[in-house]
Design goal:
Blueprint lengths: L7 H20 L11 E6 L7 H16 L3 H8 L11 H13 L1 H7 L1 H19 L4 E5 L9 H21 L5 E5 L8 H18 L8 E5 L5 H17 L8 E6 L14 H7 L4 E6 L1 H7 L12 H14 L5 E3 L22 H27 L5 E3 L5 H36 L6 H17 L4 H5 L5 H6 L2 H9 L1
Length: 480
């Protein structure tokens, strides 16, 4: 049979196509296989110590014990699905607690709302005791302010020493780092000096190594040249300290309209990330600076505003498939009681106790709804600003995964079965992207403590396959 697509011209066309495909695959490698924290907690550099994460966990547990001492109270406070069906009587709550401890599966089938509320509450408490903070930024920007140069110099040196101390004592979260001031004309010199002092001091306390899980955050980025300058400075720092290129990674903050679309109408975010020359691993959204930039008044600046949804949609469109992680912003209404009894003064009145409870519960519910909104729009990370926000951060994340668990488990089980069937009959199983999405669901849930490994293994996946983190490899192994 005579064919047309042969010869040198065809080979040249395919070579050009192959080069273009390879460039595309390099630019869009897909979602990374590493763990993403569910939040980043920011705290002023002047307050940071090696024990900060542990202390925040203790504060969070005290807040939970004071304002939601049982799972039913907590569920009602945050607006957990099915909370309205839970009992109010302490004795009845205790009965359910006892039944769940003895036979959780029976309770799950008979009273799924109670099972969910109790499971979320229990796992939140476990998390706060075991790993209260997943990611922490020592803040030299908004949480620190503008101070005399000698004071910030000393704070940078002290914070780095405390970070090195925490690393040696194993008291740090899995991820940590610092947020410097922006690279504007007014603040760039101060920002660079803080970064230099901090990194130099950190190396002195870590035997010359940049710890795993360490990141630098550059806020209020408006032009690619600011990102390029940070990458250039880190190149210089690594060369002078005999570190491998790329040892120091950073993330940028999308807080202005200019960091989204340029004056010429160009989508800027890909250019900002590219300017980092491989160092930029994440982009964080700044809710309040961005909404202020849009001339939205303070009373209407919140995470669920349509302007924020638009910006975050654009972030996803610009960076989907690149492997760059995305983070939502923060809820700025703190769950802090307005009344506190003086050490040697009279106790709070019943009215004051009631108002404390109402204020904290309202702030919890708002934070819970904001985190849920982020999760539902595929933003799996956000900011937290106060220890008492930790219970609702984890409650929202855990409820999100636990409520979706039965359907996700059934779907993954069917996918694995379909893959095995394809092996038997010789068919091509070509829906691996959906399978990877389901696998990522379980990986995210397990990493943060929402899902137990045994709950994932019930789908038919093995522990080795789960830890392999790749649905494509899972298929290849099963076909092999």
């Amino acid at each position: 049979m005579k064919t047309t697509f042969t010869g040198d011209l065809t080979r040249d066309a395919l070579a050009r196509l192959s080069q273009a495909n390879q460039r595309f695959m390099k630019a869009y490698p897909g979602e990374g296989s590493g763990r993403q924290a569910v939040h980043t907690v920011y705290g002023g550099a002047h307050l940071f110590s090696a024990e900060t994460a542990r202390k925040m966990g203790e504060v969070a547990l005290r807040s939970l014990a004071e304002f939601a001492p049982d799972f039913a109270t907590f569920a009602r406070a945050i607006g957990l699905s099915g909370a309205e069906t839970l009992p109010v009587e302490v004795a009845r709550v205790a009965e359910i607690e006892k039944a769940c401890a003895a036979d959780p599966e029976t309770v799950r089938r008979a009273n799924p709302d109670a099972w969910l509320a109790r499971t979320v509450y229990t796992r939140v408490v476990e998390k706060l005791r075991r790993e209260p903070v997943e990611d922490f930024r020592i803040d030299f920007e908004d949480g620190y302010g503008n101070r005399p140069d000698p004071e910030e110099d000393a704070a940078a040196e002290n914070a780095a020493r405390e970070l090195a101390k925490g690393r040696a004592a194993r008291t740090l979260p899995p991820f940590f780092g610092l947020r410097i001031k922006p690279f504007t004309e007014e603040l760039r010199d101060r920002s660079m000096r803080t970064l230099d002092i901090f990194l130099t001091t950190l190396l002195e306390g870590t035997d010359g190594a940049i710890p795993d899980g360490f990141f630098v955050t550059l806020p209020k980025v408006t032009i690619p040249e600011q990102v390029t300058a940070l990458a250039d400075l880190l190149d210089l720092f690594e060369d002078r300290n005999r570190l491998a290129r790329g040892s120091v990674r950073f993330e940028i903050m999308m807080e202005t309209t200019q960091s989204l679309i340029s004056i010429g109408g160009v989508l800027v975010l890909p250019l900002l990330v590219s300017a980092g020359r491989g160092r930029c691993v994440a982009v964080h959204f700044g809710t309040y600076d961005y909404t202020a930039c849009c001339s939205i008044t303070a009373a209407h600046q919140h995470m669920a505003h349509s302007a924020c949804d638009f910006a975050k949609d654009m972030m996803q469109v610009a960076l989907a498939g690149t492997g760059v992680l995305l983070s939502d912003g923060a809820t700025n209404i703190m769950p802090v009681p307005p009344h506190r009894a003086a050490k040697d003064g009279p106790p709070l009145t019943s009215a004051q106790v009631s108002e404390n409870r109402r204020v904290v519960h309202a702030a919890w519910r708002l934070h819970y709804s904001h985190v849920m909104h982020s999760l539902e729009t595929a933003y799996y990370q956000g900011w937290d600003l106060h220890p008492a926000q930790l219970p609702t951060r984890y409650a929202a994340v855990y409820a999100f995964f636990l409520e979706a668990l039965p359907a996700a488990a059934e779907r993954l089980k069917n996918f694995i079965s379909k893959a095995a069937q394809a092996t038997l009959v010789g068919d091509v199983f070509d829906d691996a992207a959906t399978g990877q999405g389901l696998l990522n669901f379980f990986l995210r849930g397990i990493n943060c403590g929402a899902i137990r490994e045994e709950e994932a293994l019930a789908t038919g996946i093995t522990l080795e396959e789960l830890r392999g983190r790749s649905f494509v490899k899972l298929l290849k192994n099963r076909r092999g």
